[in-house]
Design goal:
The chain is mainly alpha-helical. The chain is 75% helix and 6% strand. The termini are far apart.
């Protein structure tokens, strides 16, 4: 273990999910399996959305964006475990560390924004169906998507600026499996007061609470509109159109709450790694599965694609 005493840092050593030698191969196999399954399932969704004309709607346009995001999100986190095992080296330069965290933070913010845009799409579809195609035109969908991607990367820039100034650390051993900010802040000997204020003001209120409140308001209107439908079959059909999205939203916010919003007395980095693994490797895999299993349009598109493939063969 390379302990430092308030030394300017040039590189870090990523401990990984576990430092037990006998567990390295099983961990590599599990992470690789989850990673390949995530890529495969999200690429399938993306292919269906782009190729099947019946999925050329605003809802599936955003689902395609979410699939691209999930693939990027899991790549920027899981690749460190895979690269470390294959190369045998678990070190990363200081610049690479903060850049990877910046990308991770931007993608995480983008995920919340995209789900908010999808909740607005469901709100318009259920609460104002007659104006749906005019309100959610292709131009509007593209602009919303561009806003989500661009704003999330701009929003995370202050983190990059502040971290670039923190060069003094007590140790270069990072007790995590990817480049996250929490274990980094625990090691720095710089004053992190302003950074924590930034996390609380911008990270909590702008990145998390604002998308949550917008999504919550959308679903209040959606549920109210569904309850006004007189027939039970009509209510079921209306709720079914947003059930996949609602499941993904609940899954994401619950996992984020368990990982980041906990009492400081329970803030254990080893426990945090397990929660991070679930949030970065399992959730991106569950998203396309939820949309596939709970969505008739996606299942029908998949059956048509398989039938076409068999016919060509």
């Amino acid at each position: 273990m390379e302990e430092m005493n308030q030394t300017t840092m040039t590189y870090f050593i990523i401990k990984g999910i576990s430092d037990v030698p006998q567990l390295q191969a099983p961990i590599f196999i599990v992470v690789l399996f989850l990673y390949l399954m995530t890529l495969g399932s999200n690429m399938t969704i993306l292919h269906l959305v782009s190729q099947d004309p019946q999925l050329h709607t605003p809802m599936y346009f955003f689902l395609g964006n979410l699939s691209m995001l999930d693939m990027s999100y899991t790549t920027v986190t899981s690749h460190r475990v895979l690269v470390n095992f294959i190369s045998g080296h678990n070190s990363v330069s200081y610049v690479s560390y903060i850049v990877q965290f910046y990308i991770f933070a931007s993608l995480a913010a983008n995920q919340l924004l995209l789900l908010t845009a999808m909740s607005y799409d469901r709100y318009v579809a259920i609460c104002n169906p007659l104006c749906y195609h005019m309100t959610m035109s292709r131009t509007v969908c593209v602009l919303l998507s561009i806003f989500c991607w661009v704003f999330s990367f701009l929003e995370s820039l202050p983190y990059l600026v502040f971290l670039a100034q923190y060069t003094c650390y007590r140790s270069n051993i990072i007790n995590h499996f990817f480049c996250d900010v929490v274990p980094l802040l625990k090691l720095t000997c710089n004053d992190t007061t302003i950074f924590y204020i930034l996390i609380f003001s911008q990270g909590l209120f702008i990145t998390v609470l604002t998308p949550f409140m917008l999504t919550f308001i959308s679903y209040v209107h959606i549920i109210t509109a569904i309850l006004r439908i007189r027939s039970s079959s009509g209510r079921r059909k209306a709720f079914y159109t947003c059930s996949s999205h609602l499941t993904v939203v609940i899954l994401l916010y619950v996992s984020l709450t368990c990982q980041y919003i906990r009492p400081s007395s329970k803030d254990n980095l080893d426990d945090n790694k397990m929660l991070s693994l679930f949030n970065t490797a399992v959730v991106p895999l569950l998203n396309p599965l939820i949309y596939s299993l709970k969505n008739k349009d996606v299942k029908s598109a998949l059956r048509r694609k398989l039938t076409t493939s068999k016919t060509l063969l």
